[in-house]
Amino acid sequence: MEEKNLAIQNELSNEDIxxxxxxxxxxxxxxxxxxxxxxxxxxxxxxxAVKRNIDRFPEEFCFQLTENEFQTLKFQIGTSKQNLEIKDxxxxxxxxxxxxxxxxxxxxLAGILKNDIAVKVxxxxxxxxxxxxxxxxxxxxxxxxLTNMEYKLLEHDKKFDEVFNQLQLEDNIKQKIxxxxxxxxxxxxxxxxxxxANKKILIIDNYIDDSILKMLVKKKIHTEVVILTSEKSNIDxxxxxxxxxxxxxxxxxxxxxxxxxxIVIDNKEMYHLGASIKDLGKKCFGINKIxxxxxxxxxxxx
Length: 302
Description:
Blueprint: H1 6-10, H2 14-18, E1 21-24, E2 27-31, H3 32-39, H4 43-52, E3 62-64, H5 67-80, H6 86-90, E4 99-101, H7 103-113, H8 116-138, H9 140-173, E5 175-178, H10 183-196, E6 200-204, H11 211-216, E7 224-229, H12 237-246, E8 250-254, E9 261-265, E10 269-273, E11 285-290, H13 293-301
Helix pairs in contact: 3-4, 7-8
């Protein structure tokens, strides 16, 4: 991808180069992929050169972004750098979090690569770093306000997604019918119900087997699970012990008080299942959310 964009790279103006400079951890930096593009190198070769000379690149010269920093950077690229058309062409999917170079790192890298283009380009890049630093120093308060606004927008977007997903989940779970063969769909819905629990999950199913353990690994780590089942259930005590070592706490008790199947979440939400969890999707069945707290309390008290 980078080799195909050499013609575009040669046309980069000083303004374009400035658009490739970001402020992260209070430092002006440039992405490894952008540096490689300007130096006419592949990103992996630039990073290999750094690793071979790692003692020359302390953290103030080069550092790897965290996942949060990378997501914030992608947001900045998507909002404030839309006028640079080549950005989308150079931003493919990455298998690792990118590295970034400071002004000193750019200068050090040019000397290591020993490439005439790299030396010439590095001088131009550093000049733009200096200009950007002057510009930021003169407009520091404005940039700080914009950055704070971007962070707030990111937080609002995350909260909106959480609320939207929760509303979608509630709508889907209230009443649902599954037909013969909808094994994955019904399995996924049970997983969604399990993920909702913050403190406790009560599962009532007379014919439970070890397939429930594969679902319960999706629960929140400190959520307690109680399974009430009959003597006919096929779940091994050894499997329960092994499960508890990694995903505590699971308790299984035997009872003959129930005919139907229920899942109770945090003692306040209850779902009635028309089929045993081990048989999800094998025949037509329904899942209904029961919202009457009196009924939920009676089930719990049993």
